[in-house]
Design brief:
The protein is built from 10 helices and 10 strands. By secondary structure, the protein is of the alpha/beta class. Strand 1 and strand 2 form a beta hairpin. The chain is globular, with a radius of gyration of 19 Å.
Length: 261
């Protein structure tokens, strides 16, 4: 499948990547790019060879969020609602992707792109990265579920300060706030991200799927519910060939080879 606004690749080790590829417009989201990302996510989700997905941006930016020209050209509330619902679908698709997702934030992540980054499971940032949930500067509220992610990550008080003032976090501030998992030199970003992605991709796919599902459920459920979900998932893992391979490899003091069965 060919794409006009992204680059989609799958490596032999099971790591797929989506590179937002509108660098001249800071990889800002328009309807075509949203459609391309949705289609690529669907391909990666359905491909058993794909174990991990990496999302990044071409050029100097991760993404500037919604395309300003597109936003200015909207003619009606219907047009606006369509675009904002598409933004929500994009971010929800990333959030609910059934395999681990890593955001490689190579530059600025602004507007809805902050939500897209936070929808990923792990966020690795360049020292040149900036996190700009600065919707207030154009008299917008966050969209796509960005408020949810900021609240979950930062709590009400810190999220409110960022959103009410349009405060832009540099890479170290993002790290301290817990927005980024780690910050690395720009020249090391790709190597660090794909090293981590490869390590995760070598893990047991069934187990990783259940781990992600349980983590996603944690914010909306009680300890008892999560413990019950864990028990059910453990039974499913116990019935897998990967579990038997893992135990045998442990006993034989060798590295396991997981097959996703």
């Amino acid at each position: 499948m060919e794409f006009s606004t992204i680059i989609f690749t799958v490596k032999d080790n099971g790591v797929a990547s989506i590179t937002l590829n509108r660098p001249e417009l800071f990889n800002s989201f328009n309807d075509a790019q949203i459609g391309d990302v949705l289609a690529a996510c669907r391909l990666a989700a359905e491909d058993d060879a794909v174990k991990v997905l990496v999302i990044t941006g071409a050029g100097k930016s991760f993404s500037a969020g919604g395309d300003a020209g597109m936003l200015a050209a909207m003619q009606s509330s219907f047009d606006a609602r369509y675009i904002f619902d598409r933004s929500a679908l994009l971010i929800q698709t990333i959030y609910s992707f059934p395999k681990p997702v890593i955001a490689a934030v190579n530059g600025v992540a602004a507007g809805a792109a902050t939500g897209a980054a936070l929808a990923c499971d792990i966020v690795i940032a360049s020292e040149k990265a900036k996190f700009a949930a600065n919707f207030v500067n154009i008299a917008f509220v966050p969209d796509g579920g960005t408020s949810y992610f900021l609240f979950e990550k930062l709590g009400h008080h810190r999220a409110a300060e960022i959103l009410f003032t349009g405060k832009i976090l540099d890479a170290q501030e993002g790290l301290q706030a817990g927005v980024f998992n780690r910050v690395v030199p720009p020249e090391s970003l790709e190597e660090e991200v794909y090293k981590l992605a490869g390590k995760i991709a070598a893990g047991p796919p069934i187990t990783l799927k259940y781990m992600k599902n349980i983590l996603r459920a944690c914010s909306d459920n009680t300890l008892q519910t999560i413990a019950s979900l864990e028990s059910g998932a453990q039974v499913m893992c116990w019935n897998s060939q990967d579990f038997r391979e893992g135990i045998q490899a442990f006993l034989e003091k060798r590295k396991p080879v997981f097959q996703g069965k």
